[in-house]
Specification:
It is a single chain. By secondary structure, this protein is α/β, with parallel strands linked by helices. It has a single domain (about 5-90), classed as Glutaredoxin, CATH 3.40.30. Helices cover about 35% and strands about 30% of the residues. The chain is built from four helices and five strands. Strands 1-3-2-4-5 form a five-stranded mixed beta sheet. The longest helix has 16 residues, at about 30-45. It starts with a strand and ends with a helix.
Length: about 110
């Protein structure tokens, strides 16, 4: 399962990785419910990649993180390097689409 990211542990997560992938979601969001298991699979598929962290941010419980990154629609996936957004995907995406971006950013 992907890491549970909160307002409290976000900065710690960002410091220790070359690339951080964050899924901004909410429990009432239909597309988010579909994307959630895909994010979990990506986390499992990439466990051996020590440069990468994949996590989920519940926007209902962590509004500071959502505000910080200007999340206006969910699901939104952010790809961060050095605490800066280098790629953004909004809406439901396939596992392959997300993994392609991860691979390109880690190469």
């Amino acid at each position: 399962m992907a890491l549970e990211v909160t307002d409290a542990n976000l900065s710690e997560l960002l410091e220790g990785n070359e690339l951080t992938v964050l899924d901004f979601w909410a429990p009432w969001c239909g597309p988010c419910k579909t994307l959630g298991p895909i994010i979990d699979e990506l986390h499992l598929d990439n466990i051996g990649t020590d440069k990468l962290a994949i996590g989920k941010v519940n926007v209902d419980e962590n509004d500071k993180a959502a505000i910080k990154y200007g999340i206006r629609g969910i699901p939104t996936i952010l790809f961060l390097r050095n605490n800066e957004v280098v790629e953004r995907m909004t809406g439901l995406k396939t596992k392959d689409d997300i993994q392609t971006v991860i691979n390109s950013l880690l190469s």
